[in-house]
Amino acid sequence: MLEEKDIPKQWYNLAADLPTPRQPPLAPDGSVLKPEMLERVFPANIIEQEVSTFRWINIPEEILEILTLWRPAPLRRALAMEKYLKTPARIYYKDESVSPAGSHKPNTAVAQAWYNKKFGIQRLTTETGAGQWGSALAFACNLIGLKCRVYMVRISFDQKPMRKTMMQAWGAECIASPSPHTRTGRKILKEMPHTPGSLGIAISEAVEDAVSDRSGKSRYSLGSVLNHLLLHQTIIGLEVKKQLKIAGEKQPDVVIGCAGGGSNFAGIAFPFVCDKIHGKKIEIIPVEPTACPTLTKGPFTYDFGDIAGLTPLLAMYTLGHNFIPEPIHAGGLRYHGLAPLVSQAAVEGLIKPRAFDQVKCFKSAMLWARTEGAIPAPETSHAIACAIDEAKKAKQEAKQKVILFCYSGHGLMDLAGYDKFLSGKLRAYSLPRHKIRDSLCALKKFPVAKKIKTGRW
Amino acid sequence: MLEEKDIPKQWYNLAADLPTPRQPPLAPDGSVLKPEMLERVFPANIIEQEVSTFRWINIPEEILEILTLWRPAPLRRALAMEKYLKTPARIYYKDESVSPAGSHKPNTAVAQAWYNKKFGIQRLTTETGAGQWGSALAFACNLIGLKCRVYMVRISFDQKPMRKTMMQAWGAECIASPSPHTRTGRKILKEMPHTPGSLGIAISEAVEDAVSDRSGKSRYSLGSVLNHLLLHQTIIGLEVKKQLKIAGEKQPDVVIGCAGGGSNFAGIAFPFVCDKIHGKKIEIIPVEPTACPTLTKGPFTYDFGDIAGLTPLLAMYTLGHNFIPEPIHAGGLRYHGLAPLVSQAAVEGLIKPRAFDQVKCFKSAMLWARTEGAIPAPETSHAIACAIDEAKKAKQEAKQKVILFCYSGHGLMDLAGYDKFLSGKLRAYSLPRHKIRDSLCALKKFPVAKKIKTGRW
User: Fold this and answer.
1) Which helix (H) or strand (E) holds A445?
2) How confident is the model at residue B446 (pLDDT cuts 50, 70, 90)?
3) What percent of chain B stands above pLDDT 90?
4) Which of A170, A369, A412 sits opposite B412 (nearest CB)?
5) A64 touches chain B (CB under 8 A)
6) What number of CA atoms fall less than 13 Å from residue A291's CA on the CB side?
7) pLDDT tens digits along B78-126
8) Percent helix, strand and coil across chain A, each rounded to 5?
């Protein structure tokens, strides 16, 4: 329990502490990207944060006021699961599922909406796959007073109508992508009128929509990957530090977060990565699905953030921007790349990624539901699976470890996945090596991909 | 913010303080029911609570331990809505949506499961309409270690498959009712193979299942109406009292809860009804739908708790046990009666009921979602609508009132109702007088119905 007045007043920027400097984003021709080249996509105050190397960045009072609608988020101890596992470890979890949108996403959605509004922007566009991010931005725009349009991948739009209703309840427009609203959308609809859509198409539509608005009052907003958004999520780990102190713990021995684009992982982990850089012994583990093993199987190289190649080239672990993962239920972990800051922490050896298959993760989620009571998001189940492994290891070693993980969201909108698991229809899936090779081939076309030779690559 | 150690250690029993004695439950022949006649349905320790007139009843340590999975539930102030309404009132809401099942129901589900287990019972049966109660009992039985079978009204079973998955995730059996598992079910299936089912049928099946189990280790569990279950919910209002004190408020001027069977209303209101009995000036308002106006339009009389007439006769406000309300989206408020203890508080004039139609309630829910951020359950929206009315009244009167209401559950499993509202397909509905008259006719057959002459009836 943390009091409202003790909520952190600053975000932490890992860029200030990384042992080696960040690789800059590049333009498609390989030249270093100038920040002002992003100004049609993002407002200048957000770009400033994106490139900042200040260690601490003040959280504006008005953002804090909105965050206190659900923050400080509880830090709880998983006593029932500890007992079940007969582990000497103490397992703590940071419960980010308590936000109105049901995940950690609103932490950055509120901040992004606020900075855009501050800059005079009146309307944000974004894309969403499963709907978590779209809901979070709709929620934030509504509270801040911005219009919001969400391009939702058509197959999800059709399969998850309740996510659309959530966005509409918060006053946002939710449109199936591809749509007739953009040039990209019209072109694709003409060529493939029955396409289920993809995140790549939806990103292209959202960016095109924002930059082609002649009033100049529209911008684009992203749910993960970029630096400023990881920054906004660090409030998670900073709160945890205060809460662990109240609980009488010096520091965690293990910190775990699931990793798709990297935002909830960075949120809980970066303040502890900072401690590790400064000499503390902490094991920090991002967990990804074996169906999309970016950190565990991909190379660290320059790649586009989206399929269409509209974003700058980012230095990150990637499976190649053309890579389309299997339709696993942890939709939030189906991203081909991983945030540059998280990627660089991995290159430096500060974090040690693991990959689990979805059957193991759903089994862990069931153990969680039947001991701790709540039903986790399929994404979150990856962190739980890892926490269980670590608790078992602590038992074998007879060590009283402190294990901390981020409970990034609840699974109430994802029960279809549980239904499949409970009826025995869910299969484990690991991406075969040849598929990674095929997908990475395309990267070789970019000469810049070969330039990075830091760390283990 | 209340610390875990400050969670109330006793439940409050309004029966100890009611100005006039309770009307006893009756057997179908009109004789006073002996508690032991209930022993095939409920365990003796629960029956003891049901008839108790002790003011304070200790909460067993093990129940408290499970409740702390999500309790103390937050008491929050609706600052954004206050600002929007430009009201001088201070609006507080007790957030019961934070439980893993998403509503206040687990407060009693956990207690009932624990007492049954303590008594040597191994298996509970129950019925569920929309699924809130079934999920809560499944959740509780799983944590306590009881088997659980839920008879779910077939139409809901088919329309809300996710609720079934929730129950299954917690290890419960969820069966569409009518089912081939009971005599009642088989008979109805033979006569009407395509019936959508009803709560009345489901109750009959669940009770029959429990009492006909030859091992004697099965009992039945109910989600609202009875005294012991209202008792378990008083932890809500008792926590609020401590929290208001921390917030620097002496007492609320207005206390509001939605009322279906009466459990969340009793939970937040009874500790304040006690204050009112002892001279404090507090307005206490149960809010019901105009589609099912039990307290505002029904008589106070003896009636069965279920359609089939399997329960004892209870002295309560009722629209007649044959009454089937319109299919409004607040499924939890579609009950023909109202808890005897709540009913008697109404007879005594301690509480003043109001009724609202669902369109007004959904509008209020939208205002809530767009100011405070979260999407409430359709049931909860009734309490919000009343809080808004009271806040507006305070503005007209220029009074700095303290308004308190129970935010009984979230609406994430009820988005279909929002979709209907947002697309303009939802209609207001008030039960016409002749329909009440028709439904009440059947009651005249029970001579006991005429016996009660307390209060305004």
Assistant:
1) none
2) low
3) 74
4) A412
5) no
6) 23
7) 999 999 999 999 999 999 999 999 999 999 999 999 999 999 999 999 9
8) 45, 15, 40
> Which of A91, A375, A422 is most worth mutating to test chain B (most B CB atoms within 10 A of its CB)?
A375
The mean pLDDT of B386-390, rounded to a whole number, is 98
Q: Please, what is the average pLDDT of chain A?
A: 92
Those of residues 395-424 in B touching chain A at CB distance below 8 A are 412-413, 415-416, 418-419, 422
Mean pLDDT of B437-456: 63
**At residue A339, what are phi and psi to the nearest 5 degrees?**
-40, 135
Give B-chain residues touching A165 at CB under 8 angstroms. 415-416, 418-419, 422
Rounded to an integer, the average pLDDT of B281-290 is: 97
pLDDT given for residue B45 in this prediction: 96
Q: How far is CA B365 from the centre of its chain?
A: 19
Q: Convert the pLDDT of each residue in A258-292 to its tens digit.
A: 999 999 999 999 999 999 999 999 999 999 999 99
> Between the CA atoms of B113, B118, B123 and B129, what dihedral angle is there, to the nearest 10 degrees?
-20
Nearest to A240, CA basis, from A71, A25, A418: A71
**Where is A433: in which H helix or E strand?**
helix A433-441
pLDDT at A37: 87
Query: What is the least distance, in Å, from the CA of A234 to any CA of chain B?
Result: 22
Distance from CA of A419 to the nearest CA of B (A): 6
Q: What distance in Å separates the CA atoms of residue B182 and residue A127, rounded to the nearest whole number?
A: 50
Nearest residue in chain A measured CA to CA from B369: A170
Q: Could you give the ipTM of this predicted complex?
A: 0.87
Query: What string of DSSP letters covers B177-204?
Result: ES-TTSHHHHHHHHH-TT----HHHHHH
For B375, the closest of A1, A100, A419 (CB atoms) is: A100
DSSP tally for chain B: helices H, then strands E: 18, 14
Secondary structure (3-state) at B289:
strand
Sign for the CA dihedral angle at A322, A325, A331, A335 comes to negative
Residues 6+ apart with CB under 8 A from B11: B56, B57, B59, B231, B232, B234, B235, B238
Statement: residue A364 has pLDDT above 90: yes
User: Cα separation of B356 and B386, whole Å?
Assistant: 8
> How much is the CA Rg of chain A, to the nearest whole Å?
21
* DSSP structural state of residue B332: G
Q: Which residue has the higher pLDDT, B9 or B130?
A: B9
Q: Look at residue A456 and tell me whether its pLDDT is greater than 60.
A: no
3-state SS, residue B244 = helix
Nearest CA in chain A to B67: A373
- pTM comes to 0.92
Q: Kindly report whether the peptide bond that precedes residue A72 is cis, defined as omega within 30 degrees of 0.
A: yes
**CB-defined contacts A:B, below 8 A:** 97
**Is the previous residue joined to B72 through a cis bond, with omega within 30 degrees of 0?**
yes
**B428 in contact with chain A, both atoms CB, cutoff 8 A:** no
- pLDDT band at residue B457 under the 50/70/90 scheme: very low
Which residues pair with residue A124 across a beta bridge? Answer: A148, A219
Name the minimum distance, in Å, from the CA of A322 to any CA of chain B: 34
CB contact under 8 A, A102 and B143: no
Q: How far is A333 from chain B (nearest CA, A)?
A: 22
